[in-house]
Amino acid sequence: MKKIALILGLIIVGLVVFIATMDLNQYKPKIEQAVKDVSGYDLKINGDISTSFSPVGISVADVSVAVPNQKEFASFKSFDVALELMPLLQQEVKVNYVILSNLNLTIEKMKSGKFNFDVNMPKNNAKKDVKSAENTIEEPIKLPLLNVTEVRLDKVNITYIDHISDAKANVKDIDVTINDISLDSTKEKLKSIALRGVVAIKQIQYNKYNIYDTNLNFDLKDAVANLNSMKYTIFASKATAKAKVDMSGKIPHISIEETIPDLKLENFSKEILEKDLLKGVVNSVSKLSFVGADELSVRKTLKGSILLDGKKVGISGYDLDKIIKSYNDLKSGDLKKAGTSFLSSALEDSSKGKGVFDSLKGGTTAVEHLHVKIDISKKRATLSDVALSTLNNRVALKGKINIVDESMQGVKVAILDKKGCATFSQSIEGTLTNPKGKGTSSSRVSVEQVEEVVNMVSSFFGKKKKAEPKKKNNENCEVFYNGVVK
Asked: Which of the four, 6, 64, 159, 278, has the lowest number of CB atoms within 10 Å?
């Protein structure tokens, strides 16, 4: 027995020495050609293929992958694999670690709907595949028994560009460590993989949105990934979240719950609205789910709710001097001047796609309570409870927004009395990027319209016109708003 053990030991040592001293660079052209024959991709190994003695492993440096005659879509600095030798004698593959470093991946969706990594398979392989499909019964794809102790992805950068929707995303400086990896050969495809891991991401950028310093734990089992203990920074505000990604079917189902205890409105306003419009902090809670991976699918299937609530919030953008001057012009009887100085300019701005009160910029509104409750389903975002209150007044907004085309449907804004009835209301049409007040496109403005709008705006800032109240029975008015803002 000792002699047999000695012989086996000598064989193992000899095999290790052979692997460690073997020059694999001479096989680079064959490896590149083999990859092209199988996949159709151009694989270029620009660096060395080296071996190591302890642990027994192989390292491949400076590799790029491209569709023939096109720019590379993936490249990495190094790929390292370390194996345990003894299990090989028992026909078992046991991997100590796999490390992929400095991966740069670019994914582009062309206007034709194709991706930059789509490749035409070699004709010979295509013919073989057709014959194989004709002569064999389709069987589930099963993976061999394989044990991997650890997989690491270091300093990964991913860029996604959608030329159809003009969307762009960048994920920078990703570090992933995966442990407890097991493959069950009795299960199919992704369902056969089980693992746990941790992820750290320096920055995620999607169009205007930026998320920094993301850290999370995750596990994958039966093609369902659970992302737990997610922490990140968005709008310079600390956020926590958890998510679930179900990939067991043909289309992924994704759900996410997010909480931001102190969302900084100033940063939100500058990044998303591109305006220095909001001040203060609010509490934010979101519960959303959707099906699919592209933006259009997300918009069509999105459902859930978004809640924002905060006290002592500031809104910048209103010039009190202009409002008061218009009011004084009305009081003095100079209706023409009042209409020109205030309402006409405001309505003209609205017809050009600007905010109705862009001409009144300057000053700050102190908001005592801001509440936004939006329910999302069936391609519509319903403004379920959207209102704010100042020291003297309340303003509410209701209606729906089509998520797919961003059009407004039955959206109205109103100044409220104590009962929640509208003392003034205005319908808003158009889209989120180009809102328009209904019926404000005409340059002809009546005296009643001027008085009504000036009274509305003046009332908003606590300045009410001293005039005899209109004889109106308001006891049985229709309640416009009955939410949490009092």
From this structure: 6
Confidence of residue 465 (pLDDT cuts 50, 70, 90): very low
Answer yes or no: is pLDDT of 139 > 80.
Answer: no
Q: Across residues 187-208, what is the average pLDDT? A: 90
| Angstrom distance (rounded) from CA 293 to CA 295 | 7
Among 361, 326, 322, smallest CA distance to 465 is for: 326
Please tell me whether residue 246 adopts helix, strand or coil conformation: strand
| CA-to-CA separations, 436 to 101, 413, 441, in angstroms, rounded | 51, 12, 8
Instruction: Name every residue whose Cβ is closer than 8 Å to that of residue 17 and which is 6 or more positions away in sequence.
Output: 53
- In this predicted structure, the answer to whether residue 341 has a pLDDT above a threshold of 90 is no
Q: Model-level pTM?
A: 0.71
Per 3-state DSSP, what percentage of the chain is helix, strand, and coil (rounded to 5)? 25, 45, 30
Q: Which residues contact 427 (CB under 8 A, 6 or more apart)?
A: 410, 411, 412, 437, 438, 439
**Residue 181: its pLDDT value, please?**
84
Q: Give the residue extent of every domain in the chain.
A: 36-132, 312-460
Alpha-carbon span 381 to 403, nearest angstrom: 6
What is the predicted pLDDT for the residue at 381?
96
Q: Measured between alpha carbons, how far is residue 459 from residues 292, 320, 345, 397, 485 in Å? A: 47, 11, 19, 17, 18
Cβ-based burial of 326 (10 A; exposed 0-12, middle 13-18, buried ≥19): buried
Q: What are phi and psi of 400, to 5 degrees?
A: -135, 155
DSSP notation for 281-325: EEEEEEEEEEE-SSHHHHHHH-EEEEEEEEEEEEEE---HHHHHH
End-to-end alpha carbon distance in the chain? 89
What span, in angstroms and rounded, lies between the C-alpha atoms of 164 and 147? Answer: 41
Instruction: Provide the pairing of β-strand 72-83 with 49-52.
Output: unpaired
